[in-house]
Fold this protein.
Amino acid sequence: MTAARTISFTLNGLPVTADVKPHHNLVELLQNQFSLTGARETCGQGLCGCCTVIVNGKAVSGCLYLASFVEGAEVVTVESLDTPQKLHPVQEAFVETSAFQCGYCTPGFVLMTTQLLEQHPDPDDDQIKHYLTGNLCRCATYPQVIEAVKLAARKRKAG
Amino acid sequence: MTMAHDAPKAGSQVGRSVPRLEGRDKVTGRAEYTHTMRLPGMLYCKLFRSTVAHGLIKSVDVSEARKVPGVFAVITIDDVMKVIPDPYYGPAFHDQPILAHEKVRFVGEPVAAVLAFDPHVAEAAAQLISAEYEELPAVYDEVDALTTKTYVHDVLKPAGTFADLKHLKDAKDTNMALDYRLRRGDVDKAFAQAAHVFEHEFKTQKVLHLPFEPHASIADYKDTGVTIYTGSQGPSFVRTEIARLLGWPENKVRIKVPFLGSGYGAKLYIKLEALVVALSMIARRPVKLALTFEELFYQITKHPSTFRIKSGVDKDGRIIARKCEVYWNGGAYADIGPRVTQKSGLTASGPYEIDNVSIDSYALYTNVTPAGALRGFGVPQLVWAYESHTDMMARALKLDPVEFRRKNLLREGRPHPTGTIIKDAAVEKVLDHVLDRMNWSKPFDKGTGVVKRGRGFGIAIKAVITPTTSVAIVNVSADGSATLYCGTIDMGQGSDTAMAQMVGEILNVSAESVRVVPRDTDVTPYDMGTLGSRSLFHMGHAVRRAAEHARDQLKALAREVGEPEGSNIPVRELFVKKYGMQAGNVIGTGVFKPDYIPPAPGTGLSENVTAFWMVSGAGAEVEVDTETGHVKITKLVNVVDVGKAINPRIVETQISGAALMQLGFTMFEKMHIDGGQVTNASLADYKIPGFHDVPVVMDNSHVDTNQSNGPFGAKGVGEVSTFCVSPAIANAIDDAVGVRLMELPLNPESVYRAIRAKAGKPLEDE
């Protein structure tokens, strides 16, 4: 196995360093070195969205994204969205509409929804389906997720 | 007397859409799952798997793998048998070895295990293992399995748990892991008298659960006891089975279950647990095995099935006889297949009152990935057949499909073919509601041009797996707060929330204030398993009884400390009065096991075969593109009888989710198997439902009923809406384009081939 090298990046607003090997993906880096387990590897092919992480402002599939590539980048995970006092409006909306079942894919949906609402503050059903089409939910909570996204949009507008 | 910190008004907890208790943990990504857990000093396991479907193991060469730097150990069954001499496990049969022993029985069967501190090292080393097999003929088809001379197992070894398997002990020269039969009346005589006889054969394909958290287990073995962290739907069974394998008392085996990234039946009974325990015993360190997505295709699947159904109808349109032969493709190891075979088999004749019924339901071993329970315990396969068959008969007899069903419907107070009198099964009410939501009596636009429109429906009944036991504990602390200990696994169905609502209802506290203890067999009492929509009813009763027991003790405490009857004193002050400070507990316990009469051997008859009936119906409207075979589902109506809903929002989400899951099994999901090898073991090649597969209109509802023997009038909902989706859509396709599909999935190719065949211009086979 190849040797590790040290990289530096920003994780949820904090400067950090980590030792990564060339074959490590971003999910492994977050789980094994930072105990952040909100991004999970499910399909391992970048098709299900369970491993969603925001890198430099853009959602990526953490299972396909090599850890070395976050050198110097801004990495944001689902764990950064809430504070001890308050959930993010998107998270609130998912809780209030019970738009999850087993919850394994939920962090991916939450992160993609925050990005969706930045680009389309008032999305219609087709925009939601289109934007979230790369997120799969085996429990098939899709109708409830659409409700959650719309509620999140209203919360966001209300500030 | 009022509890603790909040005092909602009595009767306000059950029937309320309480937001899920674990919501915050799940939306913040902090919920704990086994797949992402780590223990200090832990080794990772990667498996070397069989590449042949059936063969004798001549040799396994692990020497190159052992040389890889960083490899801790490479383990075969020979190593396992030094610590566990009889390494066979399973809920129905002790037929599955911890690693392949002498023989391999399916492609993907684990043959050797590599342990390393770095999972990448273990994976690389596993690829250096090689094995030589003497290949044997293999059997893949469930009907062939009954007559072939190829036997998957040399000798059958029933586990001894189930009475109806005992006669199979030491059976040889057979692939049959259960032959369930029901005999009511005289079908042959009735067929001879029938004005019309119809006979059809339906098939279902091999599909799988695909929980997004693949199976994962960690064992931490010490000579004084073993702790297993596992994504399991049945920790009590895991404990019993591991204790048996080790020859230990159960109290030395501890099973901890965090949240499950879903299960749908995939994580029932025992899966990876025996293997990780053996590995941890050998390594004397914690060992984790977490499957990849691809490996799910070699763990457990749904049963493919062949159902031959024959009905005799009299001149008035009454079904007077029905003969059912169901073949269940159980794969290489029985898992819970024999129970699927029996428990669904007994309802194979459907929600109809038929005087002469014969059912044969066969669990069969084959050389493919084992099959188990998947959201419906076999019933979706049966309903697919009998509701398609019913529709075909109505068409052939030119009878209205609604009236034909109504004439034969199994109504309240009438005997089911098993002999059990139907009670609290809203069959006709569900049918009426489906028709109402479908606007069935209104004119329907059948479409013109290349896109044709059609509609169809189906109705179904299921008996809950009976008898099973649940135990619960409710602990009221000295501040008045309540804690629930129950073994039901919340794998996404919202059981923690529903159980907390029942506790809250009885103790007069808010459901949100009730703590549900994470599953740990050291503290949570016995539960048979989270399966078959049994938990809300069985564990619900146990929880209700535990809460009532606690409440009664609190009342006694109030009397003891001199409070007048009906006193409004806060509970915490009761404890202070009793103990002089905030101290003590009140512990309530509850047990539930329903009454049951086992089916009589030979006839399968029983006057009390189930604790409750589940009923559901579905209706579908479709558009079929006659040039491509593409089917668009424009409306899907799902109606279920759940008794009283404990949490209406959770009920709705379960109805919706189960129906959409079944939609995938109906329209496109299929494991392709070539010579025993799965050829589409990835999400890129095995499509599951996404946003764009949701029907244009989804209409989910439950009828207003009361389950008279249920906790708060409730019963289970987790799987009910899977039952009728497949036949409703097939019946709608027939309505649209006049073709009948006899095998799932109903993909565009199947539909287009059928359209071309009907036009007398069949396509060539592939």
About this structure: Chain B has three domains: 23-29+468-592, 54-137, 301-465+600-758.
